[in-house]
Specification:
The protein is an alpha/beta fold and 282 residues long. The chain has helices at 14-26, 43-53, 67-72, 75-95, 127-142, 162-172, 189-201, 218-229, 258-264, 271-281; strands at residues 6-9, 30-31, 57-60, 98-104, 146-151, 154-155, 175-179, 183-184, 187-188, 206-209, 216-217, 234-238. Strands 2-1-3-4-5-10 form a six-stranded parallel sheet, sandwiched between helices. Strands 6-9 form a two-stranded parallel ribbon.
């Protein structure tokens, strides 16, 4: 893998930036174009760019993540999360390139009452989840060397994550209301990159769950994070139904990372350990 060039799509997002940092440290050759140079929704442009740069592996971090906006108009969500991914998978197949594509715990309805495994049947509750599930199917049905990784509650460098928003809320409000009945697994971009590269080293294809270990509610995560930051805000646990939003969200969408942990022969860090590490380095 160290002698194979990688192409990072969605390079300016929090996961894309983490990949750039990690690949640089590992001295793995990569290309990280801006969206204007390689727009995944423009088929001809995308095809030409990939044929010219000849990457061995494409890491698709590009995604439409505006969960509530997708309820009002799902066309953009499906264009980016499904149609563009389908085109990308077909281009990879034609050019002999591997593809890593990321999906979401929102493909599940949250009604299992236990950790979801790769064998559980998806049943998305919202348009965003439906678009992500369609993207999964597009990769797995059009590409023999596709790797689809489901993630949850992703956080990393940048402003588009819960921890960054929490710090802003805490600086402006002595009392915070955080949902206590919505649970999943906070997952660090650093640990996602480590697991992804290990799976590629193992030449794995197919569908896997990549999360940190354990799970928590939004309230528990917020309480832990503020304690680590030495902040004394009062946090009131409330039901998610208190927050009116267009999209219905699964209440318990935590996924098991057991399969990936076995393959890479290491336990993925607990969510508390990774949250603490991130807050200390941020």
């Amino acid at each position: 893998m160290h002698n194979q060039k990688m192409l990072i799509l969605g390079a300016n997002g929090q996961l894309g930036r983490e990949f750039q940092s990690s690949l640089s440290e590992r001295k793995i050759e990569f290309i990280a174009p801006n969206e204007s140079d390689c727009d995944i929704t423009q088929l001809d442009h995308l095809k030409r760019y990939i044929e010219q740069t000849e990457p061995a592996t494409i890491i698709n971090c590009a995604a439409y993540n505006a969960v509530d906006d997708a309820e009002k108009d799902n066309s953009l969500a499906f264009l980016i999360n499904h149609k563009a991914v389908e085109n990308l998978a077909r281009i990879c197949e034609e050019n002999g390139a591997s593809l890593v594509h990321y999906s979401s715990d929102y493909v599940f309805d949250g009604k299992k009452g236990d950790l979801y495994t790769e064998n559980d049947s998806p049943n998305p509750l919202n348009e965003y989840g439906k678009s992500k599930l369609a993207g999964e199917d597009a990769v797995l049905s059009n590409l023999t060397s596709g790797l689809v990784l489901r993630l949850s509650w992703v956080y990393g460098p940048g402003t588009q994550n819960f921890l960054h928003k929490l710090k802003n809320w805490a600086s402006n409000n002595p009392i915070l209301k955080i949902s206590s009945d919505e649970a999943s697994v906070p997952t660090s971009t650093q640990d996602i990159v480590t697991a992804t590269l290990a799976l590629l080293e193992n030449q794995r294809t197919g569908l896997f769950h990549v999360t940190n270990s354990g799970y928590c509610s939004r309230y528990e995560w917020a309480r832990f994070a503020l304690d680590q930051l030495g902040l004394s805000n009062t946090i009131i646990p409330v039901a998610m139904s208190n927050f009116q939003s267009p999209a219905e969200r699964p209440l318990f969408s935590a996924m098991s990372n057991e399969n990936v942990s076995k393959i890479i022969a290491q336990q993925i860090p607990d969510w508390k350990e990774s949250t603490e590490r991130f807050l200390k380095s941020d």
